[in-house]
Amino acid sequence: MSQKDPCQKQACEIQKCLQANNYTESKCEAVIQELRRCCARYPKGKSVVCSGFEKEDEERQKLKSASK
Predict the structure, then answer these.
(1) Which Cys pairs does UniProt list as disulfide-bonded (predicted)?
(2) What is the reported pTM?
(3) Domains in the chain, please, with CATH?
(4) Which of 30, 39, 58, 68 has the smallest number of CB atoms closer than 10 Å to its CB?
């Protein structure tokens, strides 16, 4: 039996917030930051819902390295 994703609750809160605010991301920044904080508490690959942030961070690192 698979374990529940540790950041699933925060991901669901983002979806609820976006739906309630006509998908205006700026109105959900606090909820998005909660998910980022959750993702930061777990090792890479532990949370499927964090994979988008992990990919974003990898791309940001690549860009920083390329600009040096």
Answers:
(1) 7-38, 17-28, 39-50
(2) 0.76
(3) 7-67 (1.10.287.1130)
(4) 68
Closest listed residue to residue 40, CA positions, set 26, 54, 29, 52: 54
Residue by residue, pLDDT tens for the chain (68 residues) are 356 899 999 999 999 999 999 999 999 999 999 999 999 999 888 889 998 887 777 787 887 788 76
For residue 21, give Cα distances in angstroms to 17, 18, 31. Answer: 6, 5, 12
As a residue count, the chain comes to 68
Contacts of 6 (CB under 8 A, 6+ apart): 38, 41, 42, 46, 47
